[in-house]
Specification:
- It is a single chain.
- The protein is mainly α and about 120 residues long.
- It has a domain of about 70 residues.
- Helix content is about 65%, strand content about 0%.
- The chain is elongated, with a radius of gyration of 20 Å.
Length: about 120
């Protein structure tokens, strides 16, 4: 189960998109990932994905340490602390992903008008 959870995001990232023509594909902006801002956001998102995988790995390791503590209070506490720290890390990573994408959308939306979101 853990292997499937770790490998599934990588298989989705391996999908290739068709090449864009002069007018794009069905109105999709094909140049969105070619700017410096797009490159920076892509790199940050990949780093956050890697950090998320590491945090999930620590969550699993902490769970195993807690389960297999065999009544040893010190080992159980170490496993419990690892799980707590991993959950805090996952929350921070998710919030970082949201912040990066919100800032990226604010920076790249230089049209001057509203985009129809009602905000």
């Amino acid at each position: 189960m853990a292997v499937i959870l770790c490998v599934a995001p990588l298989s989705v990232a391996a999908l290739t998109l068709p090449s864009c023509g002069a007018g794009g594909i069905n109105g999709v902006n094909c140049s969105a990932g070619t700017s410096v801002t797009g490159l920076i956001v892509t790199v940050i998102n990949w780093m956050l994905a890697l950090a998320g995988l590491i945090a999930v790995l620590f969550l699993i390791i902490g769970g195993f340490r807690y389960i297999f503590s065999a009544g040893n209070a010190e080992s159980a506490e170490a496993g419990r602390q690892t799980v707590i720290n991993a959950v805090i890390g996952i929350v921070i990573i998710i919030l970082s992903y949201v912040i990066v994408n919100v800032i990226s959308n604010l920076v790249t939306n230089t049209g001057g008008g509203t985009s129809g979101t009602g905000l």
